[in-house]
Task: inverse folding
């Protein structure tokens, strides 16, 4: 029992690694996952619009993209992008693995996000688009102002789910060989485990992940509830308008 | 492009204001729902379209502002051919207001924002000016007290009045009503019909698809009876409704009256 506690919950080890975990690891994990989430949302939205196109030449490439990136193991995609691109001379981010890590996680995220957004947008009644168009809005204006905001609201829980997965998948970029200063949570804990043969650092890293992922769920749920019930506005009391309720014979 | 636009202008002079529908056909897949419909609506005229469900009334109405693209035929509104390739459909639509059976208000926006949205996005008015217009129109329809509510917090009758406001705020030349009272609770129907009547008295050109025969009889200058994708009978409201010439209209009237 003592051995178990020492291996996983050694307070000295945790205290020793905590400053590095928080200042370097947590910061880098946040940078990678937040950037990847934003890239995924942006590319995902473009892909979602392409998936809904009537033109096969627009639709098919998006379909292929989604099928491929959803179908591959994340670790393989991260290796292909992070190790393969620089080796092939495709070096938009120089030699630092950081940019490739963000790109890889973002590319994976986009495939899932595209399907989530597509289902959200398609859940919006056709009458919304018709009403917007009947007022003279262009297709683009109607999508941007009316349909997409409602569609995203409908799939907030599913998007949150994806963001949590992105945060967790950001740990896989360790295999690209991050140098000191670039390391994210998992890699720091992993190195510590290798050096000390003690898993307490991994437990500490795990707690850091939970501190991000669990509150995120609750924050988004609360936000979602507020959007559904209206912006903290007073609940309506329907006021029948006198002039129009009168009986005109 | 400019040549075509000019041609459209020259043609336009031969067409009066109001609406001209010329031999419009519309198919969904293999089903032809409009089988060559022609109809003229003059300025300030109120035309009610009646007929059994599936007769093509709503589709015809949606063709008038090109929410449905006719398979063939011509549609002219206010002297402009909407079915011409060179037509600016968005500009034309802004001049044709439409009110839907299920209101189709934007649920994520407040009542005020529902009305200001198109004023800002389509007419590019500054926020303040758009709000002025919206409040004025909402007051006219008696729903200005709802400005800061969401549509879901309003009754069906209130929502439909907001929908009418939203369309009127764009200062349309023509108003289209697609069974505007069909989704309302019975006690709310009258209020909305009263607004439509007031609009007609104001001289608005209106095409109204409706099941409200009393409204058609009282307000419409002309009643059009559609069945099976065609116009079967048309004429002054009183005449068509009290003295139907065809079996089909007689049949229909005996079922709805």
Result:
């Amino acid at each position: 029992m003592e051995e178990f506690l020492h291996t996983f919950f050694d307070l000295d080890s945790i205290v020793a690694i905590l400053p590095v975990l928080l200042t370097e690891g947590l910061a880098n994990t946040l940078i990678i996952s937040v950037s990847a989430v934003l890239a995924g949302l942006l590319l995902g939205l473009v892909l979602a619009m392409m998936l809904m196109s009537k033109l096969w030449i627009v639709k098919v490439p998006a379909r292929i993209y989604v099928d491929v990136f959803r179908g591959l193991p994340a670790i393989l995609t991260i290796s292909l992008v992070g190790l393969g691109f620089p080796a092939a001379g495709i070096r938009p981010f120089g030699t630092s693995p950081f940019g490739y890590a963000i790109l890889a996680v973002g590319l994976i995220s986009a495939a899932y996000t595209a399907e989530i957004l597509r289902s959200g947008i398609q859940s919006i009644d056709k009458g919304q688009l018709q009403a917007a168009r009947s007022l003279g809005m262009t297709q683009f204006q109607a999508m941007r102002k009316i349909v997409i905001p409602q569609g995203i609201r409908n799939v907030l829980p599913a998007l949150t789910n994806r963001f949590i997965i992105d945060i967790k998948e950001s740990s896989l970029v360790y295999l690209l060989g991050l140098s000191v200063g670039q390391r994210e949570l998992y890699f720091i804990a992993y190195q510590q485990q290798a050096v000390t043969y003690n898993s307490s650092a991994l437990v500490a890293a795990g707690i850091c992940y939970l501190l991000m992922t669990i509150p995120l769920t609750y924050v988004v749920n609360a936000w979602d509830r507020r959007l559904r019930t209206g912006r903290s506005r007073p609940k309506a009391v329907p006021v029948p308008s006198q002039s129009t309720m009168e009986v005109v014979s | 492009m400019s040549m075509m636009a000019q041609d459209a202008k020259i043609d336009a002079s031969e067409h009066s204001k109001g609406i001209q529908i010329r031999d419009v056909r519309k198919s969904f897949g293999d089903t032809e729902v409009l089988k060559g419909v022609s109809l003229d609506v003059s300025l300030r005229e109120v035309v009610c379209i009646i007929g059994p469900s599936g007769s093509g009334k709503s589709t015809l109405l949606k063709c008038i502002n090109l929410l449905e693209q006719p398979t063939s035929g011509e549609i002219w509104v206010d002297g402009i051919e909407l079915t011409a390739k060179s037509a600016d459909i968005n500009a034309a639509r802004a001049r044709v207001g439409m009110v839907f059976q299920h209101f189709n208000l934007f649920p994520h926006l407040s009542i005020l924002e529902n009305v200001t949205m198109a004023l800002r996005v389509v007419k590019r008015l500054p926020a303040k000016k758009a709000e002025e217009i919206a409040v004025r129109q909402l007051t006219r329809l008696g729903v200005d007290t709802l400005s800061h509510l969401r549509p879901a917090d309003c009754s069906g009758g209130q929502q439909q009045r907001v929908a009418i406001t939203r369309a009127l705020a764009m200062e349309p030349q023509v108003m289209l009503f697609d069974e505007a009272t069909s989704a309302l609770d019975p006690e709310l129907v009258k209020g909305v019909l009263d607004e439509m009547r007031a609009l007609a008295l104001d001289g608005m050109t209106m095409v109204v698809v409706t099941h409200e025969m009393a409204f058609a009889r009282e307000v419409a200058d002309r009643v059009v009876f559609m069945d099976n994708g065609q116009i079967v009978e048309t004429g002054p409201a009183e005449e068509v409704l009290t003295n139907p010439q065809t079996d089909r209209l007689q049949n229909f009237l005996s079922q709805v009256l």
User: Anything to note?
Assistant: The mean pLDDT of chain A is 87.
